[in-house]
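$ fold --in a.seq
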Amino acid sequence: MPGLFARLWRSLPRAASFASRRCFFRRSVILEGMQVLAKHLGSAPKEWLFTYVNELLALPVGERGVGDLKEHIAQTFAVAKPWLKPDDLRELAMHLDGTVKNSGVPAAVIAQALAWILDKVAAVKLEWSKMHNPRKR
C-alpha cells in the first residue's frame, strides 16, 4: 500500500505545490471512504463533506491548494452525489450558501444575534471578561 501513495504523489504535476498535493490526498481519502461506506451501508455520511469544506474554508487562501474554490467544491459534490441520501446534497448546498448555519440555526437568527451583540459591545465584553476570569471560577 505505501507504494500506491508514492505513485499517486509522483503522478501529480511537478509544479503542484505541497498545499495542492495535500488537498488532493484529503479529498481522495474522503471520497474513497464515502464510496466504501455507501457500498456497504447504503449511503455515506454528509458530515464528511461538511468537514472537508469547513476545513478548506478555514485555511488561508494560499494554503488551500485549489484554484477556484466554488468549482472545486461543486466537483467534489458531483463526485460524492451517488453515495449520499437524496436530501443530503440539498442540505449541503443550504449550508454553503448561508441559508442554514451552525447545525440548523437559520442564518436570519444568527444575523439578529450578531446585530444585538454589535449593538452592545461594551456590555458583552464586560460579561465575557467576568465569565472567563480564572480567579472567579
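$ fold --in b.seq
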Amino acid sequence: MSQPLPLQARVEAASRMAFKSRQFYSLYFATKGEAGHRLHHGAINEYYEVIRFFEAACRDAALIELHSLFTPRKDTVNLPRLVQEMEGTVGPLNKSRQALRAIATNLPKIKHLRDKALAHRTKLIEFNDVFREADITHVQVSSAIDAAVVIANELRFACGLSQEPVSPAPVETYYEMLEALRPST
C-alpha cells in the first residue's frame, strides 16, 4: 500500500480546497439575488447564459470542495482526519474543534446537496428545491465554508505554514469584468 503524502503537503492541499471553496461561493453570490442583479443588470441581460453558467459552475465547485473537505475517509485529504492527525503531533487544536462542532449538524445536509443536486441529479427536483429538502440555507453553507477556512488556517499554523487571508480580488475582478461588459446606454 502506498504511503500518504507528508502531513504538511496534505494540509496545503486541504487549505487550497478550503480557499477555493470560499472564492467559488463568493463568486457565485457576486451576481446572485436582487442586489447583484440590480448592480450588474445590463451585463447580466446581455450575457445571461454565460453568467448563469459561471454562477452554477462556481456554486457546484464550492459544494463539491466543501463536501470533500468534511468527508472523513482514510484515503482522502479531509479536515476532520487532518485535525485528528495534527492533534496527535502538536496537541489540541481548539479553534478547529470548535469549528467542527459548530457545523456538525450541517454536514449531512451538505452531503445531501452534493448527492442529490450534483452527483446523482434527478430530473424530478429543481436545484433550489434540493436546498429546501436538505433544510439548509446558503448562509449555513457559507458558514461551513468559513469554518473550513478557519480549520485550514489553524492546521497551516500548526505545521509551520503561514496563515492565509481570503482575498477579495477574484470577486472584485469579476465585478470589474461585469462593469466592462455592461452595454453603453
